[in-house]
Every structure is written in structure tokens, then in C-alpha cells.
């Protein structure tokens, strides 16, 4: 009799059973509780100190997005770097070493479905670890803290994309290597490589700075500020899809190595083209309560109707603190509100240490419709004021009031017993129960 389940259904069940039998995943699940708990407990205590000092009306200083959820869910970024790749590698390398992969390849099934099933199951296991984050949200709510659904949704999307990218990359590397230890070393080398890109961007700027904007660390940082950008999301999806395609190429065990190398090169070229196209996609969603990632609505309306293209020349070195502040506070928001703006950085050195006495260093020149204006102000208000004076326009007053903040003075009651005691015990009990049923 034909099986009532499809081949894909059987494959998903098989991959899920192997994940449940994987000690690597259970260790990840056990460790994520104390890791999230440590971050959450520290964040709550720091938030209480700030709230006590600032009092009512503390404004953006008392923002749970930065004070609580940033540190708490930052634990998932660490887990994605140091723990999650081993779980994904185990899925491929375990099948290769046990011979299950050869049996699996005998079934008539598209390679995309095979790789997709492995990635989907490990990603499902990654989503299970979000239970620790949900515990933190419930505890914060029980203390009387404010919870914003849109903010948490964007943070969850960011860590899910980061997890999917990590899993796809680890699966691709495991497919290309014979031993899991080799795959782990190569995966870690790729991770360190992205950190080097971030370092080079901070030191030299230029092209490095543009590339670093799409590294996993930069991507997660944006999502943890409740900012969802279409181009960043599309790039993450394209990179994950490209990694899965490479994995599919190298899982063709009977194919000659030369042919697999050529196919991999083609996949990488197509992925690079997709990434380049995705980088040009406009659009973003600022889900933060404070609207910290966006310019005021009246200012955005005026910028959308500027009579000519805007060019900004910044005479500051890559490591100058003023440039970093200008980029973070004003220019990043300006790029999102006005994608056509052209921003040019110029300097003789990367540090600016020996340029302080140069004439013109520190100047910011604005060009619009044949007019030019110079300013040294790096604040958001100063940048907007210079642009509006140059354009001869004045934005309307913002109708919404300033963010009042959510001050809360509270101890992390019950957090330590839950995260450090109950969570590991519960995971240990679940491991014993599940593995007994799988035997």
C-alpha cells in the first residue's frame, strides 16, 4: 500500500527525530535559559537604577527597547554565533558519518526539498529556544513593565533571520567538508571574518563601511532597535538561499568535484547579483515607540519635496567620534527618509589625529540646487536646520508629544530561580522523556 505521507513529510519527521536525539540541540536549549536570565537580571537592575534617578517623565532614557529587550535578546546573538552552528552541522555530518545520507539520496526527491527540510527543522528547533525570551517578557510584564508588541515582533524577526542565515551557512559548510570538526572551524572562521569587516569599517570607512552595514552583527543591531529595513531583510534571505543552494550542490555525492565547484561558482555569482539588487530596495518599518530610527514626520514630508538632489560632504576621519555620532544620530535617518541623498566622507587619515589643524577639517558642506552652506553641527536638529535653511522651507510643528518614557523601579523577582534552576531542570526532564520514547 502507498504511504499516506509524502516523501517530504517523511523527511521532515526523520530530521525532527534526529534533532530530538541530538545532544547539541539539548545543550543549546539548556544553556539559553541561564544566558537569557543573566542578561535579563542585569538589565532589570540597571533599568531600575536609571528609573530611580531620572524619575517621572524621564523620556527616552527609560525605554524598555534599549534598556531591557536589547540586552535580554542579545543573548540570542551570542547563541547564534557559538552554539547554533554545531546543531546545524550535526544534522548533515551525522547523516554523512552514519551512512543515512546515502540511503536518503536514493529516494527521488528534489535537492532543494532535502536541504530545505534540514534547515527548516533546525530553524524550528531555534524557535523553540525563544521560550526563554517569552519567560523574560512575562516576568517583565508581571513587574508592571511596559511591553510593545511591534517592537518584540521586529526583534524576533531579526533573530530568526540571523538564525536562518547561520543555519544555512553551517549546513553548506558541513556539506563541503568530511568531518564536523572541520566544518565547525570553517564556520567560526567565517564568523570571525565578518567581525574583521566590522573592524576594518570602523578603522578605514569607505567601501568597508558599506559592506559592514550588512554583516550579521549590523543586521541584528538594527532589528534590536525595532528597525526592519526591506533591503537588509532581502539580503539576509538571499544569502540564506544561496547557502542552501551551495549545500544542495555538495550533497550530490556521486558528482565530480570539478562539476560541483563550477556549480558552486555559478550559485555564488547569482547570489552576489541578488544581494546587489536587494541592497537597492527601498522601504523600512520603524516599530519603536520612540520613533528613534526615523526623522519627525513634518521633516520627512519636507525632505520628500526638496527641489533638487542633496549632497553632503563631511570632512571627518573614519575614527573621529564626531563622524560616528553624526552617522548614528542624523545621517542614517536621513538616508532612510531621503534615499537620493549623496553623502561623501573625505579625510587624509583614518584617525584624524594629525588633521585637526587642517583648514576645513570638521566642516560639513551641504549642496542643494546650486546653493552651498557649511556647518559643524552634528546633531539631528542642526543637520535638518541647515538643510531647511538651504532649501528656504520650514517644516510644520510635530503634532505628537515627546516620548514620556516608562520608568520602573523593580527587582528581578523570581528570575534567578526560573532561569538558573527551573529552566535547566525542565530541559533535562524533557530530554530524558523524549530520548526514552525515541529508543
Number of strands: 6
Return the string of H and E elements: HHHHHHHHHHHEHHEHEHEEEHH
Radius of gyration: 25 Å
Q: How many structural domains?
A: 2
**Which word captures the global form?**
globular
Report, as a whole number of angstroms, the end-to-end distance.
Answer: 27 Å
* Class derived from helix and strand content: mainly alpha
- In spatial order, strands of the major sheet run 4-3-5-6
The percent range for helix content is 55-70%
Which residue ranges are poorly predicted, with pLDDT under 50 across at least 5 consecutive positions? none
Number of helices: 17
Query: Mean pLDDT, as a whole number?
Result: 86
Strand portion, in percent?
Answer: 5-15%
Q: Major sheet, described briefly? A: 4 strands, mixed
Describe what is shown at a glance:
α12 (230-250) runs antiparallel to α13. The chain is 66% helix and 6% strand. It has 439 residues and is mostly helical.
Characterise this structure.
The chain has 439 residues and is mainly alpha-helical. The chain has two domains: 7-287 and 405-438, no CATH class; 297-391, Glutaredoxin (3-Layer(aba) Sandwich). 66% of the residues lie in helices and 6% in strands. It contains 17 helices and six strands. The protein has a four-stranded mixed sheet, with helices on one face. α2 (23-54) runs antiparallel to α17 (415-438). It is globular. It starts with 6 loop residues before the first helix and ends with a helix. The mean pLDDT is 86.
